[in-house]
Amino acid sequence: MSHSLALHRDLEAFVRRDDAGRGRFELLVRGARCAGCISKIEKAVRALPGVEAARLNLTTGKLSVELAGKISDPGRVLETVEDLGYRACLFDPAEAEAAQDKEGKELALALGVAGFGAGNVMMFTVPAWAGLFGQELTPATLTLMYWMAAIVATPCALFAGRPFFRSAWASLRRGKANMDVPISIGVILTLIVSFSETLLGGKHAYFDAAVTLLFLLLIGRYLDHRLRAGARSAARDLLALQAPIAMRLTDGVEQGVPVADIRVGDLLAVTPGERIPVDGLVEQGASELDNALITGETALAPVAAGARLHAGALNLSGRLVMRATARSEDSTLAAIARLMEAGAQARSTYVRLADKAAALYVPVVHTAAALTFVGGWALGLGPREALLRAAAVLIVTCPCALGLAVPAVQIAASSRLFRRGVLVKSGAALERLAEADHVVFDKTGVLTQGRPALIDAPAHLVAQAAPLARASRHPLARALAAEAGAGPVAQDCVETAGQGVEGVIDGRRARLGRAAFVGVQAGDVRETELWFGFENNVKIRFAFEDRPRADARDTITKLRALGLSVEILSGDVEGPVRDVAREVGVSDWRAGLMPVEKAAAIDALKAQGRKVLMVGDGLNDAAALSKAHASMAPGAAVDAAQNAADLVFTGDELGAVVESIETAREARRRALENFGFSALYNLVATPAAMFGLVNPFVAALAMSGSSIVVLLNAARPRLRSFNR
Questions:
Q1: Which of 6, 57, 15, 4 is nearest to 35 (CA)?
Q2: Share above pLDDT 70 across residues of the chain, in percent, rounded to a whole number
Q3: Can you tell me the distance from the alpha carbon of 161 to that of 158, in angstroms, rounded to the nearest whole number?
Q4: Strand partners, 23
Q5: Could you say which of 179, 218, 559, 564 has the lowest number of CB atoms within 10 Å?
Q6: Following CA atoms 303, 305, 311, 317 in sequence, which dihedral angle do they give, to the nearest 10 degrees?
Q7: Dist. CA 370–CA 390, nearest whole Å
Q8: CA 519: distance to chain centroid?
């Protein structure tokens, strides 16, 4: 009984279904190597009854399948994948990681063996090839050299070729043909022809070609593996920050349990200094959180009963009792990690073009090789020479370079941006970003810092409140203390999380914090505020405002240098928008816009033929972000804005927008370079092989070299950057 049939009855237990009956489950697929594999697997799975969508992530090996209803059969998906010649099982992150590590070790070992064989077989074949330059060996010596080469090359080729042979055999056993089939045929055919030539006393054998082909192919495959490992590690490093253990409350008793065992509705205790284990709501307690890991925002967030908590946030000041609203795999951190996964997984226009080209490869190339053999024999070349030419055609036309042309670029670009603090949701987003010619910014939280600064406060009042402000970690208190400068700190200070700080200044008790905490009936105010007052005395209000980001003006200048025009669309009132626009150097701005008006403005720009990049962070920006040609949101943006955006950037630097555009344009150039190189290579190499101008050894060098060129072109550092 096959593995898939053995699990057939149990797979339903691993499907997560919603109230409507729609389900989702994941498989780990092994053996998928290129864009053609992705296309074949996804197409076959989507054709199954009840399957709404299927997406294979080549980076992680995860096949995500969405089922329409309970009538769908998840077991059929597993059977279908295996029938295509790939190994599949239920997705387990630990097992996937182990499989990827095992694959890396196997590739490294195979590469070492192939390198040893390629280096040593040259000792015997170089003297034979030297005969081309008038230094002919005697027939007996030539035959001896070929036999020595066979002794070295054959075991090395058979061992190093195992990754290709296994994949090809699994595919052929099910009546399919993947990209490893022609590679395996080319290697085996080269060995057979070489033995035949040696036995018959021929002048040319190609043992060196067989092992060198594998050596160069394995270099390309190992580099590809390392690129994907880099993309995986970025998301894995993020998930490693999630708390491994959570303290679950059962009948008032705390018990440590793995975070993976937490269920929705569980009560959890989080003490100061610990990270929030899963998303949830505060049931009891008050504290302040550092959400920098999640949003990039450095301001502390006060929380109390009813407040929403995100996994990964750091609890700073008070013990919290929270109720879990999501499991660990559905947490905020997990969602961010899935953004990286989606960036490597989603396919763009260029990838779809590569898929179509790769799908034509097997029938076209095998037909060309067959015609080369038959035509050469018919024209009087003899079966041996015709077979050599056919082998050269199979080797030289391997589409590895074409299959890697775009994915390698997108993975490298997405990983590079991730390490710059930018999450890319799809390769198509990079393509659209590269086409942008007009940038629209929201003001608040995008062009501004998102950190308040004190405004319009007399120095003597600031000095009165400063001793309490210096005793608090609250960002507004810090802004007040920074304005006052160094000085004394109040005595007997007690800070109430989320409310304010109380202490004694010159023998008088005073409070600094929220209006109600100080004893003031709060009114409707637009600015962020703090209240200060001595006990039984007049209360003082301090107002704060958001100032432009430090690099906002420089970012605008760099965007114009890249050829983009810039505009501000804000829902704020006219005065603050005008001031910020003047300070950052933008003359084209509009204020007081409702969400519908922002979206309409984007539509109007599109109607003029502009390709708009929208950068926004609020609920009022979500519609405009969705309408734009490309869109970005800061990490501190609301969920709706982040979901609508193509890219999400963390941190305080607006220069991430410039970096993203530069990287997207560079990725587009490199993808087109790879396409052009692959097309030119095949245009030259195929006829050369068919007409006997390229022997199997040279074909091996050319084909493997083309893959390496594509990978190195994708991974090479950028030559220039406005940020340097």
A1: 57
A2: 74
A3: 5
A4: 17, 67
A5: 564
A6: 50
A7: 7
A8: 50
